[in-house]
Amino acid sequence: MGEDEIVPGIDKKLIEEFKRDFEGDAKNLIARNVITRHGLSETYLDRAIVNATSHVFQYKVSEAKPITNQLSSGRCWLFACLNAIRIPFIRFHKLEEFEFSQSYLFFWDKVERCNYFLDVFEEVARKKEAVDGRLMMFLLSNPVNDGGQWDMLVNLIKKYGLIPKKCWKESSCSEASRDFNRILNYKLRECAYRIRTLVLDTNANKEELQKEKDTMMKEIFGVCCICLGSPPSSFTWEYYDKLKQFNTVSDVSPQLFYQKYVKPVFNMDDKICLVNDPRNPYGQLYTVEYLNNMSNGRITLYNNQPMDVIKKLASTAIRDGEPVWFGCDVGKHFVRKLGLLDLKCHQHDLVFGFSSLNLDKKSRLLYGESLMTHAMLLTGIERRSEWQPSKWRVENSWGDSSGEKGYLVMTDDWFSEFVFEVVIDKKHIPKDILTILEQKPIVLPAWDPMGALA
Question: Where, by residue number, is the active site (predicted)?
Answer without folding.
Answer: 76, 374, 396
